[in-house]
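Ticket 4471: requesting a sanity check on a complex prediction with alpha-D-glucopyranose. Repro inputs:
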Amino acid sequence: MQLEDKVTLENVEQEAWEVLEKSIMYYKGRPVGTVAAIDSTVDALNYDQCFIRDFVSSALLFLIKGRTEIVRNFLEETLKLQPKENQLDAYKPGRGLIPASFKVVVSPSGEEYLEADFGEHAIARVTPVDSCFWWVILLRAYVVATKDYSLAYQSDFQHGIRLIMELSLATRFDMYPTLLVPDGACMIDRRLGIYGHPLEIQSLFYAALRAGRELLVCQGNQDIVTAIDNRLPLLRAHIRKHYWIDLNRLNAIYRYKGEEYGKGAVNQFNIYVDSLPYSELDRWLPRKGGYLAGNVGPSQMDTRFFTLGNLVAVISDLASEEQSQAIMNLIEKRWEDLVGDMPMKITFPALENEEYRIITGCDPKNIPWSYHNGGNWPVLMWMLAAAAIKTNRVCLAERAIAIAQTRLKDDEWPEYYDGRRGRLQGKQARKYQIWTVAGFLLAKELINNPSWLPLVSFEPF
Ligand code: GLC
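Returned structure tokens:
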């Protein structure tokens, strides 16, 4: 590397650390989180709040740097926001839920308090199902980093974990091992045809169950521990079998028969062959590549590639070792589509034309190849780095980081990029988006020191 390039690179990193520092949110004088974005040129809406999912990228970085206090404070304060009683009131958040975001408010008497948003303020009133999973995953990362189990073993924490497990393991109206959720229940918090059993939720659910299993002390929680032990293998087998797409599977589905009744059915979900975009997939799927489908349900197989769900499946061991390698092969072989000019696409391909109109409800923010509908999100870089380390494909992550670091600082750390290759800065993207900054720094930290991978990864069981 030329000296000049090295200096420029150091500047990029230095600025990223400075921005991250500025984003720290204080509550009663203690650091408790990071705001979503620091962009004074647009209306803040809720971007001046600390989002649970956004903070995870910052938190992992803080853990790596030994700044564990902010993560501990965050975990303690968000736990207090979790409803502990079932209110049987449709407008109140259910017991066990963790909010999407929170902010510090000052009362007329000058007292500070935290105000949570469980979706009752958010655009479209979406429920943040992923928050409680990220919370448990982060608590486990805190324990791995500090080797201090005492926080997780405190009775309030044991109770909090238990409530999350109860909420997600409860019997409902369906009989799948996967979790049934409404549209926009995760990072994609707008209507995008991801209601039902979307992959992102299933991957986070799996990782959270693994984390919960490690952290729950059996005394008094034996029933939940048994429920987790029962659910984990079923969930894993279901995803590995029914969500998997590669050329072999495509061939099998291509020859499926419909309307099979009873236990012996091969086509269990009654997927109609004509509902899959065969010719596109046939062209797109590399011989040795594959991925997990976006969603599987009654007569439904969403063949879009969703990045977060696939990468978390690799990191958490939800995908088998062979499947994990195939996912990384696919990313390598379809680099232009999935990484392009900015790592990396949130989903591929975009919904277009009639599909866009019907499925997004004509959402002007989610026009094809923009925002959630096929935009490129730099935050996903750290998950790519973690998955690359897990599968021994580090050079893929290095390539991605090299692409990102030439642009992010000059573009002022946008939230997302648009266009088929991610060349355009997102139409309505905030600048100085904190998980863009943290995602980039975290990807670098992980690649420079892969021994941090266990903060987020799980071994086969
Ligand atoms: C957008 C994203 C969501 C994120 C939030 C704050 O709503 O879709 O995933 O948490 O912004 O950055």
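Notes from triage: The chain has one domain: 1-453. Leaving this open until the requester confirms.
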